[in-house]
Amino acid sequence: MTFKRLKKIAIIALSTLAAMPVAAQDLLANQAPIDRKMKAVDAEMLRQLVEMEEEYDSPAADLYEDWDNTYAHKLTSLPDTFRIDLRDFCMPTPSRVITSNFGSRWGRQHKGLDIKVYIGDTIRAAFSGKVRIVRYEAKGYGKYVVIRHPNGLETIYGHMSKQLVREDQEVRAGDPIGLGGNTGRSTGSHLHFETRLCGVALNPAIMFDFRNQDVVADSYLFRRSHYERDGAIATQLRGANGLYGYNPADVNSTNMYKSQAQSSSRANVRYHKVKKGETLYSIARKHGTTVAALCKLNRIRKNVRLRTGQILKYS
Description:
Elements: H1 3-19, H2 22-57, H3 60-63, E1 81-85, E2 98-100, E3 103-105, E4 108-110, E5 113-116, E6 122-124, E7 129-137, E8 142-148, E9 153-160, E10 162-163, E11 170-171, E12 176-179, E13 190-197, E14 200-202, E15 208-209, E16 214-215, E17 219-223, H4 227-238, H5 255-267, E18 271-273, H6 280-286, H7 291-298, E19 311-313
Antiparallel strand pairs: 1-17, 2-5, 3-4, 5-13, 6-12, 7-8, 7-11, 8-9, 9-13, 10-12, 13-14, 15-16, 18-19
């Protein structure tokens, strides 16, 4: 098509618009904002439908009978087994320093992990969910936030200097929910982080690896008969000070497990978390050992299929 022909078409189009009745032009001008409003309404309806579908499919809907803002945590009926989806997570803080583990501490149970943060550091939602509580507790959590997540967990963030969310607010994983602080029963600025299922405190180290800023696996299979032992093992693998905070008398572990935990601590056993695409050969080369040694330590065969997040001994 030649330039002259294009020019002719453009002139005809402009002439047509100019000849259009004023009423018709006004109609088009008025229609534009209406179209934009309708698109906005459609987008909002779609968002609500997606949220309703997510809520309907949410495992949490089967675990909790009501939405109660009275208590930070309240024990409800605990399932025998329950799979907790850990995908689409966000670490609540980029800090890798655990200052206090889950478990027995100073004659009482410490129900979460203390992670070193400074006053004013951003604290983020670990998973998407709905804020259940935003409150201040002078002799406990200080300024804290409780979020209920569709995967069944509730997370608690304590000792903050400021809360950035309100009750009943929907949040996405990674949204800022508060600032690090030293409020409540606290001896220094840090984040007190809890993970609870039906009000029962689970060791966050079962699911979160703060040193590597990652979750341990895509999911965690909660078993009512094993979760306390799982928590003790998690502290041993990912805690700041070996078995600090773990008192075998506080959990229903067998004598054999106690012996294994103590001997492992004495031998300074080291562990590797399997990443996607890794093989026994690449892991052995990384840690200066052999595939045969890895197989012997972990009682596995050379042709074993490794799972992402699997924990292996390498020394």
